[in-house]
Amino acid sequence: MALSRLSLRSNRFLKPTPTLLRHVSTDTTPITIETAVPFESHLCDAPSRSVTTSSSEILTFFRDMARMRRMEIAADSLYKSKLIRGFCHLYDGQEALAVGMEAAITRKDAIITSYRDHCTFLGRGGELVDAFSELMGRKRGCSNGKGGSMHFYKKDACFYGGHGIVGAQIPLGCGLAFAQKYNKEEFVTFTLYGDGAANQGQLFEALNIAALWDLPAILVCENNHYGMGTATWRSAKSPAYFKRGDYVPGLKVDGMDALAVKQACKFAKEHALKNGPIILEMDTYRYHGHSMSDPGSTYRTRDEVSGVRQVRDPIERVRKLLLTHDIATEKELKDMEKEVRKEVDDAVAQAKESPVPEPSELFTNMYVKDCGVESFGADRKELKVTLP
Amino acid sequence: MSAIIQGTGAATALTTLNSKKLVARSRTSLPGVDAGRRKRCIVAAGSDASKSFGSSSLLTLRHSHKLFANAVATKADTSATTTGHELLLFEALQEGLEEEMDRDPHVCVMGEDVGHYGGSYKVTKGLADKFGDLRVLDTPICENAFTGMGIGAAMTGLRPVIEGMNMGFLLLAFNQISNNCGMLHYTSGGQFTIPVVIRGPGGVGRQLGAEHSQRLESYFQSIPGIQMVACSTPYNAKGLMKAAIRSENPVILFEHVLLYNLKEKIPDEEYICNLEEAEMVRPGEHITILTYSRMRYHVMQAAKTLVNKGYDPEVIDIRSLKPFDLYTIGNSVKKTHRVLIVEECMRTGGIGASLTAAINENFHDYLDAPVMCLSSQDVPTPYAGTLEEWTVVQPAQIVTAVEQLCQ
């Protein structure tokens, strides 16, 4: 181990090229790490606390989370300079959820989430430039600029958005799981929702159907303890969201620990493919307010926020892990962060340059083949007339 | 816009777009009630279809993958098709649904009591036995959730047919229909299509009470991104059902509780109706009466009286509630210069209100009299039979209205 470190260091001296992968360990030998917080389970056996991972995976966590964090900070300043308008819901603090989930699943498993979707989009392989363009309403955006912050989608990566109405994505997610079962695919759907949405009736309706029909649906409650301005103890009689499924098994996970999230998601995928739906409650936290119009300090103290940042920050955790296990040095990680920052800044600059949609785009994609104003033959193949 | 409304000239120009003279003729010439020349629409389905085709000579001229729509229907009792089978409207819907489910394994049905029970109006009778529980799904009573599930499934490529046991129950799913069903294609920049069909019976029945006599077309009509059609005869019920399932857009198919037992002879061969086209029920000269769904029958009843009194009304079943077939309607208005709309929607904010606005906006120069709209009263439907009768438009009122307009 020491020998390999030495060779790493000497490589750095000999070849000072500023590529990202220069000093990143591509070591994939398995390492086992214990999660700090045990899992709490309901109606099922909790998975083991020992997570199998590797140096390269942990480094990927770090890089991806740093990128997500930087993206959200950049979005914050773009919003304040009025380049992003409307609603902008930021995910910083919750990044561990997005990267941990991605590590456990494939791109054929579906993910659907709410309006806090920037980082999930990135995790699914979305480009920074597409994200920023969409936020700024440019044509280059992932939804051609017509969706906005709350409507990021990426069909080829099975990322189904991006939904503005609280809880409306839950039945959609169960529908995705139904389609997976109908097509006899061995994939699952992760339906993400928040602690606020956990009180929606449609959650329980959809859960009932999913359990009844044995759908491979995994409902993930991202419990960041505040539904906009209302704390969980003020909105839910039973804040144990993983138990609220009643007849559906549940698992409570430390959502700030990317490895715990990975373990839980892997466990959940296996469970869902065999036994039907399962609820995962991710105990996480958001540093920003609910959205950019919410200062985030009227319903919680600044001390609370900074306390969580000091003790539970997901990126710091991974950094500590990397340093203790000698996978990377302090300086290497700082360099990585600098590179990520540059990546994000470049993407922002590129997005700022990209053009706004054409005025004719107002009417495109209303209908397939835009037959709201055109009348097609019954097979939609030939145009018959353009209606006034 | 006005360039389109140029009568036959525009139509012939359009024939160059599609070389099917059959279709062009059905649009421009307003054929008389000559059942012998009734144009059957022929479907040359793909290689997996096993239906027998009609023996029209036109079939040989067409490419095998093109379909045609037949917009012209004669009055039900004068249909003189030599081949064909007689059935009731709900059986026609079932036939259409079954044919589409046979044709495309992605089509599934979900709704309350559609499976083992056979459907509360028997539209899905026998389908669960034939296709199994995974394709004909009995859902629990949660419209919001199962409509959302249908839409989620459609995002991946399945084609669910979502049944609301009564259209009024779909109000519980309004969020899913409006925000997700209608808008996802747009907000995702075209990435996802939502080929769902949402169908169910609505309208005023026989003393069903206020909550079960709702006409939801007025609530749904301003949702961008959806198409709405209303069927009224077994022929167009089957055709519209099939077209709606094949459409890549979300379609809401409005059926009517009282029309399920209508009997008509429909062709044996496969056919589809055009989703955006109106149906010319009775050509005429004096006045255009626009109607849809159950009111078509009240209008035809009134038409008998009117004909005896010497009037010649032109009756068009608009069928397509969103978007309106302003092409057919426009041609008619230009001919008769008087319009009467007879609908079952409420007066305020109903389909008739929108149609009045559309006609006034587009055809104002051709009108000799203000557009008159007869609609239901703005009241919850009462239970008492006599009162309920007075909430909807009756044939006598239609006759009076026509006489008033044609003075």
UniProtKB/TrEMBL annotation, chain A:
GO molecular function list: pyruvate dehydrogenase (acetyl-transferring) activity
Q: What is this protein called?
A: Pyruvate dehydrogenase E1 component subunit alpha
Q: Which domain of life does the UniProt lineage start with?
A: Eukaryota
Required co-factor(s) are: thiamine diphosphate
Q: Which organism is it from?
A: Eruca vesicaria subsp. sativa
The UniProt entry, under NCBIfam families, shows: PDH_E1_alph_y
Q: Which InterPro entries match?
A: DH_E1 (IPR001017), PDH_E1_Alpha_Subunit (IPR050642), Pyrv_DH_E1_asu_subgrp-y (IPR017597), THDP-binding (IPR029061)
> Which function does this protein serve?
The pyruvate dehydrogenase complex catalyzes the overall conversion of pyruvate to acetyl-CoA and CO(2). It contains multiple copies of three enzymatic components: pyruvate dehydrogenase (E1), dihydrolipoamide acetyltransferase (E2) and lipoamide dehydrogenase (E3).
Reaction catalyzed: N(6)-[(R)-lipoyl]-L-lysyl-[protein] + pyruvate + H(+) = N(6)-[(R)-S(8)-acetyldihydrolipoyl]-L-lysyl-[protein] + CO2
EC number(s): the record gives 1.2.4.1
The protein's assembly and partners: Tetramer of 2 alpha and 2 beta subunits.
Q: Give the first-level EC class, as a single word.
A: oxidoreductase
Upper lineage: Eukaryota, Viridiplantae, Streptophyta, Embryophyta, Tracheophyta
Q: Name one Pfam family in it.
A: E1_dh
Q: Which residues form the Dehydrogenase E1 component domain?
A: 63-359
Keywords tagged on the record: Oxidoreductase, Pyruvate, Thiamine pyrophosphate
TrEMBL record, chain B:
User: Required cofactors, per record?
Assistant: thiamine diphosphate
- Report which reactions are catalysed by this protein: N(6)-[(R)-lipoyl]-L-lysyl-[protein] + pyruvate + H(+) = N(6)-[(R)-S(8)-acetyldihydrolipoyl]-L-lysyl-[protein] + CO2
Span-the-membrane segments of this chain are none
**E.C. number:** 1.2.4.1
Fetch the Pfam families from UniProt: Transket_pyr (PF02779), Transketolase_C (PF02780)
Superkingdom, according to UniProt? Eukaryota
Describe the protein's quaternary organization and the partners it interacts with. Answer: Tetramer of 2 alpha and 2 beta subunits.
Q: What does this protein do?
A: The pyruvate dehydrogenase complex catalyzes the overall conversion of pyruvate to acetyl-CoA and CO(2). It contains multiple copies of three enzymatic components: pyruvate dehydrogenase (E1), dihydrolipoamide acetyltransferase (E2) and lipoamide dehydrogenase (E3).
Looking up PANTHER family in the UniProt record yields: PYRUVATE DEHYDROGENASE E1 COMPONENT BETA SUBUNIT, PYRUVATE DEHYDROGENASE E1 COMPONENT SUBUNIT BETA
**The name this protein goes by in its record:** pyruvate dehydrogenase (acetyl-transferring)
The lineage is: Eukaryota, Viridiplantae, Streptophyta, Embryophyta, Tracheophyta
